[in-house]
Write a structure and sequence with these properties.
This protein has eleven helices and four strands, in the order αααααβααααβββαα. It is mainly alpha-helical.
């Protein structure tokens, strides 16, 4: 897929996730619905028009470009084993790194983690030494990774925090308007299994893409969310005590 196609694909996904139609977009930018459709289908965006569409959707040009670049690599990446080991060994360092991944400023991290400037700098130095960030003057930083990171299934962060995260995450009724929990069990063919695995992988990519788009939003417009997706061969324990009739 060309870079232009990637940008347009991300723009289409953004429209969809924010509940906007071509007609809605046309009204916001002062064009007809037909004109908007032709622009998207022909991929004929001038910079000025692209900027106006981004403003109408509610993202910046920079956020759009970053999301398109990340979508080319599935929107997420792995750290080195040494980097994961460092974060797994220090919960405060991991928390600081997480906040940076989510676009929090130094002032917000100081407040959130109840740190002094000296304490924050010490964490930043460790992250800089590990090449996770680039520490700049006046406690400014630039991420060298992310903004979406995938942890190794058998890696040190998973080993340290997996049991804790699973227990905490599932201790809820999942009844809220922004909470969902679905559990399904059935017998599926190999072909259907492969289809579902691909859909779950696409959902993970969508999650990463949305996180990339929203990383630049102010903290007041965001909240911490988590998604747990699992799929494997499984037989319920209720069948273990059921004996077939002779």
């Amino acid at each position: 897929m060309s870079e232009t196609a990637q940008i347009i694909d991300v723009l289409k996904r953004t429209l969809k996730t924010r509940g906007l139609t071509y007609r809605d977009l046309a009204k916001r930018v002062g064009l007809s619905e037909g004109s908007i459709k032709r622009v998207f289908s022909a991929e004929t965006f001038t910079l000025q028009r692209l900027e106006s569409i981004c403003a109408a959707v509610g993202i910046s040009m920079g956020e759009l470009m970053r999301a398109a670049a990340n979508s080319h690599e599935a929107g997420s990446q792995y750290l080195s084993l040494e980097q994961e080991q460092l974060l797994a060994a220090d919960s405060r360092l991991l928390a600081c790194f997480y906040l940076l991944l989510n676009g929090r400023s130094s002032a917000e991290i100081v407040q959130r983690m109840d740190l002094s400037e000296r304490g924050l700098r010490e964490l930043y130095v460790k992250l800089d030494d590990a090449r996770l960030i680039e520490l700049q003057p006046r406690l400014k930083t630039r991420l060298r990774v992310g903004p979406v990171v995938s942890w190794r299934i058998d890696g040190p962060v998973h080993r340290v925090y997996e049991r804790q995260v699973k227990a905490e995450f599932l201790q809820a009724e999942f009844h809220g308007a922004d909470q969902v929990l679905y559990f399904r069990s059935a017998e599926l063919s190999e072909a259907s299994t492969r289809v579902l695995v691909r859909k779950i992988e696409q959902l993970a990519r969508d999650f990463a893409e949305l996180a990339t788009l929203d990383v630049g939003l102010p903290a007041r417009e965001k909240k911490n969310v988590a998604m747990l997706a699992a799929f494997r061969p499984w037989v319920s324990s209720m069948f273990q005590d059921i004996k077939p009739r002779a």
